[in-house]
Specification:
The protein is of the alpha+beta class. The chain contains 2 helices and 5 strands; from the N terminus they run H-E-E-E-E-E-H. Strand 4 and strand 5 form a beta hairpin. The longest helix is centred in the C-terminal third of the chain and has 8 residues.
């Protein structure tokens, strides 16, 4: 069972900002909130069998590269 209950719909920009910090210069995402088996400031996710980084966030798995694009300020107007 995931640490967060599964919820309907995609993740919002606000939810992403609450849980994750992204440094565009290094390309590294870190946790802002502690949780089960994670600490604040720790790099998020794991590499899957294809070599892509993934993370489980709010009950769903996401590719980190897609979250990085969504994290950028341009997408705040989409909500």
């Amino acid at each position: 069972m995931p640490p967060y209950p599964r919820r309907p719909g995609p993740i919002t920009h606000k939810e992403l900002l609450e849980h994750v910090h992204y440094d565009p210069e290094t390309g590294i995402m870190t946790w802002r909130k502690p949780g089960p088996r994670r600490r604040v400031g720790e790099e998020i996710g794991w590499k899957n069998w294809k070599g892509y980084r993934e993370v489980q966030l709010l009950g769903e798995c996401w590719y980190i590269n897609r979250l990085a694009v969504f994290y950028m300020p341009v997408y705040r107007d989409w909500e």
